[in-house]
Amino acid sequence: MNFRHLSGSSATPKTLKFGFDQKSFIKIINKTAVSQSLTNATEQTLMRGHSAAITCTATNKNLMLTGETGYDSDVLLWDTETNQILQRFSEHDGGIIAVDFSDDDLFWCSYGADGWLHIVEIASGDIVCRQAPTASNELLKLSILKFGGRISDPRGFKLALYQLIGISESGLLVKIVFNPKTALIETTVINSANIKKSVMDCEFLQTDRNLAVAVTLSGDVFMIDLTTQALICQMQLPGQISVLNCVSVLKPNQALLQQRQAQQKKNIYQTYGRMEQLDEFVAIGGQNVVCILRGQQNNWQVVKRLNLAENVIGIDSDEAGRIVFECSSGKIQLLVPPDYIQAELCSHHTKRITSMQFIGDKLVCAASEDNTLRILDLCDYNPGLVINTGFTAKTPTYPTAVCLNEVQLVTGFSNGDLKIYDVENGDLLTQIQAADRGVIASISCMRNLILLGSQTGDVRVWDLRGQKIVDQQRPHTQPVCQVQLMKDLKENPLVISSSEDRYLCATVAGVRILDFQLGGPLRAFVQINGLFFCIGGRAVDIVDLKEHKLVDHFEFQQRLMSLCARSDSELVVGCDDGSVLRIGVNANKLSLIEAKVKVHGGSVDKVASFGGVVVSADSVGELVVWD
């Protein structure tokens, strides 16, 4: 099997970045940083090195910083051109909150949940400063931290001091001055009366790095002079704007930027006018809105405003003036000047895949804990259809099982409800509330009959035409993992079920006619040529259910979590350590063909195959396509 595509999104705020080559963007899927082409979704580069979910990112030319959550949390310095880890920094405990680079490419910084700020020299990897920001002799907890450049004096000449800006957990702006000579920092809370609002994000301006722009929870946009701590200007976006989450300052052409900086330098006898050269473009994302502002001196105007039905959680820009932004739904879009027309780059699930099934050639339907059903087109890896199940993220209810029934998507939920959607347009056709007493773990369909397997150990057969139960039984004492609906010789419904109680059962009209016990929890099975291929614990077993005998037994070191048949002579198995195994079947004997070791960031709970294409999904939200 060859890797083709990694799908998914963690929807982590403020982590979306442009690639250094301006031909790609970088998104986060749990523990993995993915560099994907702006024009071709099949062109991806995976950067794996973290043991926990990535919480923050920063880029500078071909370098990238990533920080992770967890007690033993690391900061990784990447070369995105070669996809190699240059430095691994393990000085923080409790998780990384923010990372960033200095303007002159000499230093990078990291701030952790332990309250410590580290400033590290890029060339050597040496720590040049380790200090906890404090204000009024009290530890200052930050939620955002941005590394600027050297501070300019009133004449425009740079001093041997570096400036950082942060946001406290209470939403206050914080100015931090770093002195490389003394290896100390000085922290000041900006207490201007007009800025005492809950700040959500901030960024240094490009024209003058002593100026910063900040966006707030109340929808205000501020520009602050960090030298004097004065509020230069304030505006509120037109319309009823509430929350503004993120901001990015568009990067001008480097030659133009150097020209502007040279013009800023004044004669020693002249007064420095900080605003006279100001000409900035700022992109802002918030609740249901993306705005592009242009500021010239004290005048700000809205260049473009996009009204969305989603919450924008991350935004970035490149030197070409393009803007990329990410929504909490997992959708990433591109805006290209001068008209800033929207172009969707990708739209993926943001939480774990609970069930998936191929519904045709190169089409797979996946149900996710983010309360969506997505039909993924494996030609361009974009969803052909997204169905919102009607439950919100605040409710614990989400889809747990999906099955194609001719032109219908039959979906079971964690609260026992059953909903049926039209596969072509996503319309809700019918629903049955409390179709099962517990979580619906598996579904199998045969025209008007729908078989449900429950975590209570029950199996039920529903007749859709009359919306009534025609068969109900409890063949298992533990949660049912998989069910399959068939017909016996008399055309009666034949129920095949597997469970964590280690039994594979066949029942007709409530009577248990056949069963077989394996050595571990029977999580999945497939039927090939009258034999059942099952995974139980750490083994794959071939079972002849009619003869009640074990045909073959093949053990592994990993715990086996999922199973599908790629062909009559090949199985694909997902493991708890993130590995995907290919197992050959020859004359009813099992053998290992290939092992993709730890290719996932979590336990591979679901696998599916059709026409030689394999899709695997894990417990942390990664969905990988193989062929």
From TrEMBL:
A GO cellular component annotated for this chain's UniProt record is: axoneme
Q: What would be one Pfam family of this protein?
A: WD40
What Gene3D superfamilies has UniProt attached to this entry? YVTN repeat-like/Quinoprotein amine dehydrogenase
Q: Kindly provide the name given to this protein in its UniProt entry.
A: Cilia- and flagella-associated protein 52
* Family statement: Belongs to the CFAP52 family.
- PANTHER family recorded: CILIA- AND FLAGELLA-ASSOCIATED PROTEIN 52, WD-40 REPEAT PROTEIN
Q: Which InterPro entries match?
A: WD40/YVTN_repeat-like_dom_sf (IPR015943), WD40_repeat_dom_sf (IPR036322), WD40_rpt (IPR001680), WD_repeat_EMAP (IPR050630)
Please state the protein's primary subcellular location. Answer: other
The WD repeats are found at: 47-88
**What keyword terms does UniProt attach to this protein?**
Cell projection, Cilium, Cytoplasm, Flagellum, Repeat, WD repeat
* Entry's transmembrane regions: none
Q: Which organism is it from?
A: Hexamita inflata
Q: Where in the cell is it found?
A: Cell projection, Cilium, Flagellum; Cytoplasm
